[in-house]
Amino acid sequence: MNKLNLSNIQKPIIEELSHFDSVFKNNLKSDVILVDLVARYIIKQKGKRIRPILVLLSAKLAGGITERSYRGAALVELLHTATLVHDDVVDGAEKRRSFPSINAIWKNKIAVLMGDYLLSRGLMIAVENNDFDFLKTITNTVKRMSEGELLQMSKTRKLNINEETYFRIISDKTASLLSTCCEIGALSSTNNADQISALKNFGEYLGLSFQIRDDILDYIGNSKIIGKNPGRDIKDKKITLPLIYALRNADKNESSKIIRYVKDGEKNKKVEEVIDFVKQNGGLEYAEKVAFEYSQKAKDSLKIFQSSESYTSLESLVDFVVSRKN
Amino acid sequence: MNKLNLSNIQKPIIEELSHFDSVFKNNLKSDVILVDLVARYIIKQKGKRIRPILVLLSAKLAGGITERSYRGAALVELLHTATLVHDDVVDGAEKRRSFPSINAIWKNKIAVLMGDYLLSRGLMIAVENNDFDFLKTITNTVKRMSEGELLQMSKTRKLNINEETYFRIISDKTASLLSTCCEIGALSSTNNADQISALKNFGEYLGLSFQIRDDILDYIGNSKIIGKNPGRDIKDKKITLPLIYALRNADKNESSKIIRYVKDGEKNKKVEEVIDFVKQNGGLEYAEKVAFEYSQKAKDSLKIFQSSESYTSLESLVDFVVSRKN
Q1: Which stretch of DSSP H or E encloses residue A271?
Q2: ipTM of the complex
Q3: What is the pLDDT of residue A3?
Q4: Which ranges in chain B are annotated with CATH 1.10.600.10?
């Protein structure tokens, strides 16, 4: 389907997105030369901008893009960038979007401080403009994202994770920010509580299917992205939905054996066997089914709105997310 | 002087400080077991609580301690703790207040995430209670603290630092938070703009003398604190006020030689010689004079208030800061 690429999806907001770019750029300016240098490097290697796109499409759908929408978009992108910079430090990642990571070029210390700086710059946009509603949602999101990652890490150590915990983790670490993007977009253009809540739910369901898809890709492979060969999660002892289902579905002895393999972490020599186990026990079909269900729930959330270009784009974004190959 | 110890200084707010402890503790609770575990560890090894003390004394001086004062005190202590946790990651520090650091026990990843979590918990206290004035000042402080550290690091690389840059750095990285503590304390108890501004200035001057004293201690030694032997800053290529003055005051050729030593960083075998150079060229006297001047300015800022127990405590805190041995 040709529809399912980002340049089609962002068509209704193509001019607004380029205005966003300049707002984002301006917000990264600093009179500290080193900060400015790192910021320019970050701007140069811009990503897919999924989060600002969500803010702007949601705003457009709920009434129209306003000055506040741009501030909201810059806020979420700054927060997202801050977490990526911190992630690369803690993972010791050398690359990000095929460029050397901040920590690879400027070392950990500067990367941690830059992450803190980017977060505070994001919050300052809201503070300076009295966008108190944005602050409420974004602060809670920062808390949920860090708590979700920490919950995942503690479960990873003990390898005891069930579906309920899995959904709490992915809701906190991934869906919360996408939900906040849509909520902020809505808040920037309407006071209608039903519409705000509908878009917030849309983002949450979109986020859940996004993360489940991510976890599926770890099993079926994703050669386009460096460092994302199949089985990365298994070596990291991350037990995600496909494996949770397979372990529950399979013979008990076999499941125990697989758990023992996963416990070996980096030293695990049986990654291929774990992947086959998941495939043979229906783990991928199950995860795909659940991701699809959430994508339907996301689309259903939009039904209170009248059809429009932005409506279609948000629907396509859902399809894009659950069918993406990387 | 017996007056100059923290237990005397905190006498006017001794009960309030123990109430603060329970507010702080409650704000660290989490239903994520790992978060709770790390949080309890942090609470157990509480530090000097200079920042909450400043909030509470300022509030008491400006009209009286309110519920908002406790929230402000918890907010600044959470932010301060977050930066310490991140600092230990970037410095690879094994100890903090003679306990193993968070990164030493739980590794870097958990420490970086815990730092983010603590910061967001702090901001949430303000957000949940609509303390928008707190958010304005604290967000700007987070920005200044990270920017100040980054400015210091870029100057450290090039070893070109003058007095003006030094004061910008210490104002941003240290004085900004102490100033914010006093401002938040005042905001929690009065609307009087002159009093708020007076306490804000008090905190700024206190912070400047605090940091200058810290930089002096690096030359005269501070054996009580592990990892704080004399010359640490020199090996870190941090050029602080005593050295800036000595370099300006000394013979040009000798100064160039000293700069070459400092450039060696960790490999510097002439740390003792650098310290002697600073002593012989009046660097310590000069820095002590400047720290004393700022401590006077801090005290002068308080003059719009009537004398009281809290007034005396804030004055003693200034003396404590500029005369401390560690």
Answers
A1: helix A271-280
A2: 0.86
A3: 55
A4: 21-165
